[in-house]
Design brief:
The chain is an alpha/beta fold. It has 2 domains: 195 residues, 2-enoyl-CoA Hydratase, Chain A, domain 1, CATH 3.90.226.10; 47 residues, Lyase 2-enoyl-coa Hydratase, Chain  A, domain 2, CATH 1.10.12.10. It has a 6-stranded mixed beta sheet, sandwiched between helices. It is globular, with a radius of gyration of 19 Å. Bound molecules: acetoacetyl-coenzyme A. Acetoacetyl-coenzyme A binds next to helix 2, strand 6 and helix 4.
Length: 261
């Protein structure tokens, strides 16, 4: 697949997707969003890939939001459709049966914060900045910012960020639980790759089950979610990885997971 606005690289079990419009700080226009959708569909279809890293090209920005020049000429229907397109891709990411690490290497504003929220966790450089500045443009977040942000950091922080449009530094982003870990800029990608490799070495069935259960159990009653956990726990015992993991422990050796795809 030839992409024009993203870079797609695979190294062993790890795919790296880089949003590549550095002249406009990697702003998301409909073409980028479409290509992201194609790239994540390619990841889903490739049995060799176990983990994805999402980042932005250049050293200044992850994604500075949706493309304001492209949005400025949209009519209400086009704007609604663009929001749905962004929501469909972020939902595809959330539902992807493989973990996605956001490596936020600079500005993550508007759609940039929102797309990082659809990843499974966020690693950030010490230069990263987050925010939902849509209110300063007379609009609101349209890629899940009013929904995923509040679910991650709580309603009151989500309201402060969406209502003020303030850009926050990475220290505050970490304090409110938006970012998992912060690294000096040059150490961000090595750290993301190291964690991706660690996850890629685990069993596929248990990796997928963890992601699914944490995502889908979150918004349903606890007793229902716990039942789902028990079902998935049981299903892990159908995987060769369970036999390998437990045998390796008992035989005092490192497990080598080669389980089903
Ligand atoms: N859309 C289109 N172009 C953008 C852009 C965006 N979101 N963000 C930056 N650019 C462009 C600038 O227009 C500029 O282009 P030119 O060189 O042709 O003038 C180039 O990228 C560099 O940007 P700046 O000169 O502004 O760089 P800076 O360092 O002075 O400022 C910034 C950086 C604070 C990130 C600033 O660019 C900015 O505020 N960008 C907009 C952020 C924003 O409002 N994002 C939310 C968009 S709305 C949204 O995302 C809706 C949604 O949820 C669906």
């Amino acid at each position: 697949m030839a992409y024009e606005t993203i870079l797609y690289a695979v190294d062993g079990a790890i795919a790296t997707i880089t949003i590549n419009r550095p002249k406009v700080l990697n702003a998301l226009n409909p073409q980028v969003v479409a290509e992201l959708g194609q790239a994540f569909a390619a990841v889903a279809a490739d049995d060799e890939i176990k983990v994805v890293i999402l980042t932005g090209a250049g050293d200044k920005s992850f994604v500075a939001g949706a493309d304001i020049a492209a949005m400025s000429v949209m009519n209400p229907v086009e704007a609604r459709n663009f929001s749905r397109q962004l929501q469909e891709v972020t939902t595809l990411m959330e539902n992807l049966p493989k973990p996605i690490i956001a490596a936020v290497n600079g500005f993550a504003l508007g759609g940039g914060t929102e797309i990082s929220l659809a990843c499974d966790f966020i690693y950030a450089s010490d230069t990263a900045k987050f925010g939902q500045p849509e209110i300063n443009l007379g609009v609101i977040p349209g890629a899940g910012g009013t929904q995923r942000l509040s679910r991650l950091v709580g309603k009151n922080w989500a309201k402060e960020l969406c209502l003020t449009g303030d850009i926050i530094d990475v220290a505050l982003a970490k304090e409110i639980g938006l970012v998992n870990r912060v690294f000096p800029a040059e150490e961000l990608m090595p750290a993301a790759i190291k964690t991706a490799k660690k996850i890629a070495a685990k069993g596929r069935v248990s990796t997928r089950a963890c992601k699914d259960l944490i995502n889908f159990g979150f918004d349903i009653p606890l007793d229902h979610a716990l039942r789902l956990e028990a079902e998935s726990f049981g299903m892990c015992f159908a995987s060769p990885d369970q036999k390998e993991g437990m045998s390796a422990f008992l035989e005092k050796r490192k497990a080598e997971f080669k389980g089903s795809k």
